Structure formats: structure tokens, C-alpha cells
């Protein structure tokens, strides 16, 4: 009897799991291409070194190299901003000297701060306040939406907003390390477009090839613009 029950259980699970597993396998996440300009990649040996570091990054499916333009094309499924940060770090680790990274209509560049204080105590630099510039921060409702995603980011302790300048100021906890790429990821999750993240680590900039979509004016949210420019946003 026990053998028969086990057989029936296995048959039922096969019916439930089998089609789903097959469907997932038949519809994998669409791959996207990221182009990285690595100005220090000047020979085949350099290219192999950078490529090896990129393949070590999670999710990378393929890497191709165009030596004349110092460009690497990386294929991976639906990269988040955090994943893009990993690619940038990999290109740096491989001594490629990345200058820009392009995906879709967004061009990323990251200039690290050249400060001896940051090098001697990186935890202090990581915990320092960071400022995020938003493309067309339309209303306080938009700011609240971004802040909710920022607060969901590990290490974020406080978020304040300057509506007039379109800026959000982010403070980390005393023992926390914040990545500018993680903050950009939070803004993307809120459905908004970041322009830059600046702090003692340096500046992460995003240039957009297309203008931001216009937002509908809402009298209820426009009234919030009359509030003081710098406001704290609570959890």
C-alpha cells in the first residue's frame, strides 16, 4: 500500500511540476547586451585579462572584444544596476580602465574619488551621505516612492528630499556600506530615472539618449511643492 501511495504522489507531482519547469526552460529571461569602453585595453593580453574578470561576474553569458574601439560587449539576462556595477568593478579589476558603459538608452560612467582618506578608511567613505539627482522629480509622491525603495536597500538609515533641486540625500547607518549602484537600482525599481549619485566614493553618472516621458500634473501632489525645500522622509 505504501509503495502504491508513493507512486501516486510521484505521478501527481510530475503533473504539477513538469509543465511549469518545461515552460520556464522554454522561456528564459531575454538576454541584453552591455557595451563597456575600456580605454586601457590596448592589446590581446589586456583583452584576455579583462574578459576573464567579466566572465567571473554573475550571469555573464558571453563577452566579445573590439580592439580598435576598446569596446567589450557583454551579454547577460536582464541586468540590474547592481549587476552593472559588478561589470564595472570587473573591468577595473582586469585593468581595463572603463570609461563608459552603455545599455539601452542609458550611458553610465563612474569616477572614483581620489582621496587618501577614502583609501585609508573605505568604511567611512561608504557610510558618508550620498546625493541622488533625479530626472524630472515631479512631485512629493514620486519622492516618497523612491524613498520607499531606498529604505528597502540594506544600510540606508535616512532619506531627505530637496524638491526644488530634484535631489534625494541618503544617509547610511554607522556600520553600513552603501554602493551608488545599489541606490541607482532602488530608483529604477521606483520607476524613476536617476541622473547621478555623488558622495565620497566618487560620482556615478547616467546620461539618457531619450528625454524623460512627461508626467501628468496632479493638483493634489503639486501642492506639496510649496512645502519647505529640504524635507525628511520617514519610513
TrEMBL record:
Residues 208-235 are annotated as: Disordered. The keyword Metal-binding applies. It comes from the Bacteria. The keyword Metal-binding applies. Gene3D superfamilies: 3.30.70.100. Residues 219-235 have a biased composition (Polar residues). Residues 1-25 form the signal peptide. Keywords: Metal-binding, Signal. Residues 32-96, 128-195 form the HMA domain. One of its GO terms (molecular function) is metal ion binding. This is Zinc/cadmium/mercury/lead-transporting ATPase. The lineage of its organism: Bacteria, Pseudomonadati, Planctomycetota, Planctomycetia, Pirellulales.
